[in-house]
Write a structure and sequence with these properties.
heterodimer; A: 451 residues; alpha+beta; five-stranded mixed beta barrel; 10 helices; 18 strands; globular; B: 484 residues; eight-stranded mixed beta sheet; five-stranded mixed β-barrel; 22% helix
Chain lengths: 451, 484
Amino acid sequence: MLLGESRILTALQKAAKSSAADNTLIAAQRSSRKTLRFSGGQIHQNFQEEEITVWVKVACGGRLGVSSTCSLRHEAILQAVRSAMTIAQASSKGPIPSFHTGQTQGPAAVPETHFASTAHFTLTQAVDLIRSLDAWFLKKTVGLAGSFVFGEDEMAVAGSKGLAQYRPFTIAGLRLVPTSGKSSGFASQTVRNLSLLNTEVLAERAWEFCRLNKNPRSIPTGKYDVLLEPEAVAELLEWLSYIGFGAKQMTERTSFMAGRMGEKIMSRSVAIADDGLDPDGLVVPFDYEGTPKQRVILIDNGTASNIVYDSHYGKLQKKPSTGHALAYDEAEGPTACNLFMAPGQTPYKELLGRMGRGLWISRFHYVSGLLKTHEALMTGLTRDGTFLIKNGRVSAAVKNLRFTQSVLEAFSRIAAVSRERRMIADPGHGLSAVVAPALLIKGFSFTGQTK
Amino acid sequence: MRKSLRDLLEQTVKLLKRRGVDYADLRWVEQLHEEVVVQNMHLQHVSTSSSEGVSIRVLYKGFWGYASSSRVDAQGLKNTAEQAIEMAKAIAIGSHAKVSLRPIESVRASYKSPLEVDPFQVELQKKIDYLMWANHVLKDHDNIKTATSTLEFFQTKKLFCSTEGSLIEQQITESGGFLESTAILNGEVQKRSYPSANSPSLGQAGYEYVKALDFVGQAARLRREAVSLLRAKECPAGATTVILMPDQLILQLHESCGHPAELDRAMGMELSFAGGSFLTPDLLGSYRYGSKLVNVTADAALPLGCGSFAYDDEGVQAQRVPIIREGIFVGYLSSRETAARINRTSTGAMRAEGWNSVPIVRMTNVNLEPGIGTLQDLIRDTKKGILLATNKSWSIDDRRLNFQFGTEIGWEIANGRVGQVLKSPVYTGITPEFWGSCSGIAGKWEWQLYGVPNCGKGEPIQVMHVGHGASPARFEKIQVGHSR
């Protein structure tokens, strides 16, 4: 059950107004989740958790202080305000804090973010769902591991000069990993509206990968054309965001976009944007500073175009905040976390045929983008389905492979982009997502094999 | 610990017994965190946070139920207890595989991790001054574009109470930090970090621990090495002898030994997220994991270790458990439930990130036991090879076999001597082949312990603090350099 706009905002506003600081910003996030994890015919972990975090940011005499608490009680928030002020008073003067605490004009219309179908879903229904999936896979004589998560979030921000933002959210996610011997498959879906969860499609996709993944064989390392499923593309996009789309990485000049704004760094078919209001993703209309999320075009026709800002980095770079501030105790800087890669013209079903010979990859595992961030050089492994394609058809399952590849170079060799896209998100978090198409890429570099 | 809190928990245990649970435990947890970041001589970030709540885990008619809440009063605990029972009842429907726990001895104990100076009592200005001083030294070169110095402190208080009669109070304080210098020249970007990269190295100790890290003394070396990397030769590719310094070897241990030795992974309970393990139970006691020199121990009672405690989060006493003995796989990190499934007793590795997360099998302090001799001995005995230090990137497959690690810096070794600096080194391998090629481990005088604060596992993901110790070690015929 939601605590509600009135209860949360009243608590935050009351504390913000009581603050003796020059400027006070208070954000709260309340989350409740039920999680069921299953494998081998058993639900082996089932738990519900409920938490609230309240972050306080104050400016006193040009100094900044940050604190947090896990209670909405007035005394607890005031204590956090006092802690933040103590920090501010002890801090040296830096760039003058510039966060906004007055009323903000948000977008005229925000898509729905809270759905009764999810909010009223019961534990018993969740158990039934898992049991029916178990039975479905049992008929296919494969085992099933996975997780089902559902719950609600509330996010609110109040400022000492009248800022007041509140939004409730629902979230649900199903992840399926069928296994048979050493072969496995994968499918997942995260939704705000549980009535849109398509378990049949997910089960079929996961089963198809598992079925095709029998008796995987080793192939030589080297360059292969690849068809990356949206899950694999999403992982690369998340890493691009982490190492390059934020103002912190640009300021520190470790981003692959540093010094290259306006230059073509990828294929012209690549367009990547961050958009907290697009209903195809997980809509989040404002950030932890209460700033309405702007649509930011990060890569436009393959050209490095824009990055995202919060108030701090906006001030440093003389730009307005784009609404991408994280919680105040995070030191990561502004982050693009509602990513969209533009779809292409090619129907998904035609991609394998277009590839002719190459590798079809269901998803990546344990990608690291820290090798050379200024080149977006990444490494990682394939997981739960890697297939050798000949003449546009699956010719054999392949043992998992390690890639080591500059994503800038890979995204400069895109041969086709699917018309269809999937939204990939972690339901445990619920406020960030990637919407990605499938990509056909020429000459993707594989550098290692698994056993 | 407040008496009223103990009473609350004990009353809830009585309530759960009346409700007919087979077993239940309650964990009250309060966590404090402070972080101070100085970048390019500006105080970039200071924050404090606190969090408090209770989790209740019940085994009801053979099925687990778990709930948590930040409402720590009689009504809050009663509601949470009922939610946990409802969770257990819900999954019992249509299920047959019941959980049974072998009873363990009840414990009434109290533990505080040792410290000299409580870091939460140290004035903020003193911390800022320390970081500023180190930052000044770190930044003192035109090519150093970003110099960052960070301190972090954690304090966790726990009260564990179970239907078996245990009442365990623990307080653990951790201190740590790190330095990072980023040098840039003509588009070349190189970093050096100390004592570890990307996150602080923590120790279960007080403020004395961060002073002993000697940030100011280390900053000049770091700055010099970062600048030297700008003009360094690219690490050559090929199979060669590799000597790993402890600040890289600990990540190798973490990924290729610690995670595969988690029994829940080996049983498929993490397949939907973190993955499985090649160390399956049928291999226990006979599988050759590494050379005879390789001895790996999980030690939850190691002083200073970030994975240390007196009792784990289901009341099992901290243990020192051999995982690899003379190269043979001999033990798991396990819980009461998972250990029982292979007819063993728990090795005491059940840990939760906080009050709002369910305990799962985690690493404690997973250490490579020291060998003999010194780093210099290892280098002297190496005709041609590479010395690698400080982890930069890490990646390993879902069964923990194929790994690739990048380090911040390398040095050529030729005819028993360390030569020129090498940039962007990467090495790759298959876990048992890699450990099987171990040809030397330096002795205990070079053994160093690190605290890793960012081990991720579970759904929703839980971030755990774990410890790893190692001396420098040498490995033969390792594939170095990355193909493009």
